[in-house]
Amino acid sequence: MRGEKQTIEWPLRLRVAFYIAEALDYCNTEGRPLYHDLNAYRVLFDEDGDPRLSCFGLMKNSMDGKSYSTNLAYTPPEYLKNGRVIPESVIYSFGTVLLDLLSGKHIPPSHALDMIRGENLNLLMDSHLEGKFSSEEATQVVGLASQCLQYEPRERPSTKNLVVTLARLQTKSDVPSNVMLRVSKHEEAQSTPQRPLSPLAEACSRMDLTAIHQILVMAHYRDDKETHELSFQEWTQQMRDMLEARKQGDTAFRDKDFKTAIDYYSQFINVNIMVSPTVYARRSLCHLFSDRSDAALLDAMQAQCAHPDWPTAFYMQSVALSKLDMQKDAADMLLEGAALEEKRQRGARAS
Q1: How far is CA 147 from CA 82, 152, 165, in A?
Q2: Which of 38, 154, 238, 240 has a CA between 20 and 30 Å from the CA of residue 323?
Q3: Which residue of the set 25, 37, 250, 299 is catalytic?
Q4: Which residues contact 116 (CB under 8 A, 6 or more apart)?
């Protein structure tokens, strides 16, 4: 689904919102109300096409993880004030997921709220839907998103309220998700791509961490160019310190001092000024060398958040999933990465 552009129809978007709300409510009732950086990339689809919430965002306490989000624009206001995550912070992030489902884009909440206040519903909605949605339902989802994004945590709805509101909008409950996705329920993913794998994909398929390390060192930061562009005004002392941390991390990474590399890369990431998918990919590999596959998967997912069409992010997820004995998911990720890489190569040849 991520490898090929496909518009998800409106009823399935409502189902995604409902299932994720149910998952959050379940976690809340089980005493696990905190979830790290909830966003659209935490939503996975199982073999039946049903949306599922990844377990890798669950937090044990409010101080798990020093940075809540890879982008300050999507961070709950209370986290910016005191650095703590509360259950209502998750509701705020759920509001950003609703915006993604409505618009098909990752719109900063402040921009979306301006559209909502201006009652520009059509401007907010995903143009790829081509008007094939219920304006009444969309208005209800917009209203719910607006409630979730309230500045004061106490003014946001509970997970129970989310479930109740979204349950009323499930108009195609009898239609299986795989039918909405237009994929066969019993269709098995190929275990290996039809075309030869690139050196990185091949190394990831073998879980050859040493070979992956060599390739990432050689690749340097060439794929980060399109993810950030610094102006002269941004060269503050904080920026220089952050880039120095990245430089120290790169040196440790090259020398295979993975613990030190993790420390320096974490300093770089926690400043929250610049998002670098390469740093996430490198820290992911460091975690793999340190036998921390769950942390490696989380970083690989963050790399994908920063650069959604980057094959390396999918390849690194594949390795982490293999280490976690999730072989089918690992094979799927490898295939998606290979498809993206082939698409990129075709584009390069065409130009």
Answers
A1: 22, 10, 12
A2: 38
A3: 37
A4: 124, 142, 145, 146
What pLDDT was estimated at residue 197? 81
The tokens describing 77, both together, are 């206001």
User: What gap in Å lies between CA 62 and CA 92, rounded to an integer?
Assistant: 15
Distance CA 57, CA 60 (A): 10
- State residue 92's pLDDT score: 93
Over residues 143-161, the mean pLDDT reads 94
For the chain, where are the E strands, in sequence order? 43-45, 51-53
Give DSSP secondary structure letters for 90-108.
Answer: HHHHHHHHHHHHHHSS---
Q: Cα 119–122–125 angle (5° rounding)?
A: 110
**Is the Cβ–Cβ distance between 258 and 286 less than 8 Å?**
yes
Give me the count of residues in the chain: 351
CA neighbor of 339 nearest in space, from 188, 224, 192: 192
Token pair for 269: 């990431």
Q: 53 by DSSP, 3-state: which?
A: strand
Single-letter amino acid, residue 309: D
**Would the pLDDT of 94 be above 90?**
yes
Closest among 227, 230, 241, 314 to 276, alpha carbons compared: 227
List, in sequence order, every beta strand (DSSP E) within 37-133: 43-45, 51-53
- Residue with more model confidence, 272 or 64: 272
CA distance 285 to 307: 17
Q: Would residue 64 show up in a list of annotated catalytic residues for this protein?
A: no
